[in-house]
Amino acid sequence: MRALQWLWDNREWLFSGIGVSALVALLAAGRRRRARATPPDTLTRYPHSGLEVRPIHYRIDVTRVVPQVEIELLAINYLSRPISLREVKVTRFTAGTLPAIDNVPLAHEVVLKPHSSFLVSCERVLADSEVRAAVTAPGSSWGGSLNIVARGMVRGKEVSYGPVTAQRIEGVVLVQHDSGRTNS
Questions:
Q1: Which pLDDT score is estimated for 141?
Q2: How many domains would you assign to the chain?
Q3: Predicted TM-score (pTM) of this structure
Q4: CB distance 170 to 144 below 8 Å
Q5: Long-range CB pairs of 127-131, under 8 A, 24+ apart, other chains included
Q6: Residues 85 and 10 reside in one and the same domain
């Protein structure tokens, strides 16, 4: 009730140009203070030079004749010119309790159109020790993390992204059990 009385008593200067400006300044200062106090997003944006690569999904498949790891990534071109994507490499990848898998290269070179994104895949055959570790682990859907580096060419100039570390990714490990069924 006191606040309403104060507003009524000061209505002339409060609703003048100076009062409105002071009110806007107070609201902006409060908003800035609150923005500084909130924790940063879990989806952290990393600096880039027009090229960005985000993790989407992974699959470790030991049910194939040739077991392999596939990691899907979203390559984003923020530039107004096409980027010829020369290299995208997952330098280190971990999934659940499995040992780290290193150096998973880009499966196919692509050209990213201006202001667009494209789903790319990094793939490689698993080593025998990696297959043994995946077979003994229970097949399931696991969270993981990866480190990425990428580079491309735009009109003869190189653009790069990374190295970016500890990016989260979700995926599956497909394992063939003795009964012949696949567990994912």
A1: 63
A2: 2
A3: 0.68
A4: yes
A5: 129/99, 130/67, 130/69, 130/98, 130/99, 130/101, 131/62, 131/67
A6: no
